[in-house]
Specification:
Helix content: 55-70%
Strand order of the largest sheet: 1-2
Shape: globular
Number of domains: 2
Structural class: mainly alpha
Largest sheet: 2 strands, antiparallel
Distance between the termini: 72 Å
Strand content: under 5%
Length: 224
Amino acid sequence: MKNIIQFGENVKGYNVPVLNEREVRASAGILFLFAFMSLLLIIFRGNFILAKFFIIYFLLDFIIRVIINPKFSPSLILGRLIVFKQQPEYVGAPQKKFAWKIGILLAAIMFVLMVIMNTFSFITGIICLICLIFLFFESAFGICLGCIFYNLIYKKKAQYCPGDSCEVIEKEDIQKISFVQLAIFFGFILFIVFSVYLLKDTFQTKPDNLWNKLGIKNEVSINK
């Protein structure tokens, strides 16, 4: 029973229980995909069905992670299946537990407002956006935003963060950003803004069917 209900794995050489960051990131990516699909259906179709199902599964998944054991979380199991050939990257479990408690809180609010009360408002919209940001940063960059809050609240700093981000280290040359790189980045942002402004009317024109434009469809019809 003790091995069933626990948070994190005890690995030799680590002072605190740890989790495999590769599985966590894979799981976050999977959850982000379904959360984003749910949001698109709401925006473009006004369809809340997928969102309601996702909220239920998300809440249940995180309750299993925090209260029972992360290794029994369905999304983490799927993440393990996907990255099982990759070398584990161990990260501290305590900060992840704190971050996932935030996830439970947000999911519980969404469950009450959207599933039970069957309502939507700017509150559910903001919570949805926060969840998407948290999941995206975790999956794309390996940055646990909830873990950052852990460091702000608890005096005992988090241990074993992804990429040793908890440690203060001097940047390698390959990590440093030059003025030229910053200029290119912000120049590209300006390019995007101006291109959207100048070309938005042109790009609103619905594309033609390629085969119709080439006359291929008409030729096939004549041959028949």
